[in-house]
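During the no-cost extension, the postdoctoral fellow (Dr. R.K.) reprocessed legacy sequence entries with the updated structure-token encoder. One reprocessed record is reproduced below for audit purposes.
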Amino acid sequence: MLILTNLSKNFHGRFVLKNINYNFPQNGLIALVGVNGAGKTTLLNILCNLDEPDSGVVTQPKNTLIGYLPQEPNPDPKDSMLIECMSGNEELFQIMLDMNKANMEMAENFTNEKYEKFEFLENLFRSKDGYSFEYNAAKILQGLGFKEEDLEKHPKALSGGWKMRLELAKILIKNPDFLILDEPTNHLDLPTIVWLEDYLKKFKRTVLFVSHDESLLSRLPNIILHLKDGDLTEYQGNYDSFLLQYELREANKVAELKNIEGKIETLSRFIDRFGAKASKATQARSKMKMVARLESDASNITVNKDDAEINIKIPLKQKSGKEVITFEECAVGYTNPLVKKLSFTVTRGQKIAIVGANGLGKSTLIKTIVNQIPFLGGNMKLGHNVKTAYYAQDQAEYLDMKQTVLENLKASNPELSEGNARGLLGSFLFRGNDVYKQVNILSGGEKSRLSLACLLVQEANFLLLDEPTNHLDILSTEILSEALAAYEGTVMFVSHNRSFINAVATHTLVFSSKGEAYLSKGNIDELNLFVKETST
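Re-encoded structure tokens follow.
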């Protein structure tokens, strides 16, 4: 399988990949983990020939086919879902286009040369089972939940989650030997996440994926690759096993470092005491050399900083009234209602997770509350002293790419002092000179963290969040979930991250395929909702 040899990549003076050597095993389920900005997407891009290393090589065996699922769907898809799916098999799709073009040219002005060209392409198409191409694509799409009557529709009409299903279909039609997935559960609903997990378990070749879904990481991989400070370390087992092994390794490093520091202290005392005595000069010089060697050894031991101790407190300047928002027989949608007869009241302090399959109106409800989309019927009323703040799925696009991290945060709240701003940014893992980084050089996860920080300084008492954990690493997701759980205000959020929902939600608003919604107390585990979702 793929072999990495002395692979290095430097961004703005910092190595995200540093002389990496690794041989990917065959038939492995491999998760690539690391904090935002560690270089995970960069490594995937290099493996897929979308980026080049500064040095080193990737050796790919002949005839090895790589399938790549990016973080975001194709922004410029073909005219129909069926054709877009077929375009995933680039070679066969191009042969089909060339054959159709040759057929048209031959029909317009027949020559023997044109006929021979068409015949060559037609034989090649037939040899690759091309006449089953469209049928196979349709079967794959239908297996992923697409309806037969919708296959000729334009992909741009799809919601974010369905667009990612289409991207998955494009990979399946390609039938790759090495499958690379960058945050595959982003924008997917719970039933599709379960389908994807089941598919990957049955995949008989190599899978390399990046995910920040702890539930998926605990159940799926048999190998964890940890990317940190430019180094890639392999751990056998799932994410839970990795955490245990990593903590043990760090504990051993701390013990080794303390042992070396103790030896240096003992030797230094001898040198200080006897270094000036002629009779002890030889011994002192010997011990000075020993100290130099030990200091060199100590400098090569890097102990992990305990990021887990970081916490965020979301400011709440003014409490809202007890009733935050009331829905009376509301209908939500664009031209036709996606959900009808929405009637319930949200009270102060509730943390409501909005769950259900994609396309049922979860994000539409959030957009309607913040007046981006009008209600199609019924009445909605905000309570006394309610101040809202909205985090969209594409929130990072609203950042000023030409300004620094600190400038973006202060623009969200001009009254914020620089000290307080830097303190909050530190909570979001922007430390030291990181606050002076220009936003356009940040990773996707770093932009998401900054977007959340900009939201939280608005001092709202009612937060509306649409997929806030997309692109966040596990540590950042945990920090955010702890902050929201402790927040004294009210939260409504859309998420498919099971761990995040269970950590934050006090209530769950369930959207059904029948255009109805039910508000219940508890998170998805307490409601056994996950089982219900996957059985529908």
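DSSP finds 18 helices and 18 strands in the chain. The chain has a mean pLDDT of 86. The remaining legacy entries will be reprocessed before the final report is submitted.
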